[in-house]
Amino acid sequence: MQRLFFVRHGKTEYNLANRVQGGAIDSPLLEQSKKDAVKTGAVLNSYGIKQIIASPQKRVVDTTKLITSQFQHPYTIHYVEEYKEFGYGKWEGAYIPDFEKEEPELFFNLLHRPDLYDPNEFSGETYQQLIHRGTKTVTEAIKQFPDQDLLFVGHSITTTATLSSLLGKELKAIRSQTPLENTSISVLHYQNKSFSLDSWNQTGHLC
Q1: Under a CB-based contact definition with an 8 Å cutoff, are residues 158 and 173 in contact?
Q2: What is the structure's pLDDT at 169?
Q3: 2-206: what fold?
Q4: Contacts (Cβ under 8 Å, ≥6 apart) of 185
Q5: Which of 19, 108, 141, 160 could anchor a disulfide with 14, C-beta 3.0 to 4.6 Å?
Q6: CA atoms of 202 and 129, how far apart (whole Å)
Q7: Each residue of 103-136: pLDDT tens digit?
């Protein structure tokens, strides 16, 4: 059995300011989140994970470096372009309440009905596109590093959509899980070409 660990990046200034933070922009980690990333690394160190797959966006790069600062074993970080966050087109960086006010139906579908979400008018990314690249990242890593535990460090929506899809959820239910907290840990098991959920959104290590 192969264990797949998934961590969301630390909380950023844009997260705090309630702004859209997708695949085209970044903002700095908060000081508390840097400490939380170190706590996450201290927990993950005990698993001896040697292969880390991460988004190349700065908030994830910084989180990954803080996590691995606690590792007492050799490891390699692989930055994968296709593991970036959901693309929001012209809404990147926007104040989220403004997005909801100007596009109420679209915003509702973004959160609750991914099967009806259509971002083409503002050059955003579809859930189908996100799921394709997210699941590809995971399955290719499994092929590259068979029988090894893996750590994926990424983003909220990318991780949620990817894991939900790998677990067989329909598109309309792809966001039915509890939203992922920053520096939370989720774990899938992979065995006999099948995925199962071990844990979702663990945050006890941050206390």
Answers
A1: no
A2: 97
A3: Rossmann fold (3.40.50)
A4: 5, 6, 7, 40, 43, 44, 199, 201, 202, 203, 205
A5: 19
A6: 27
A7: 999 999 999 999 999 999 999 999 999 999 999 9
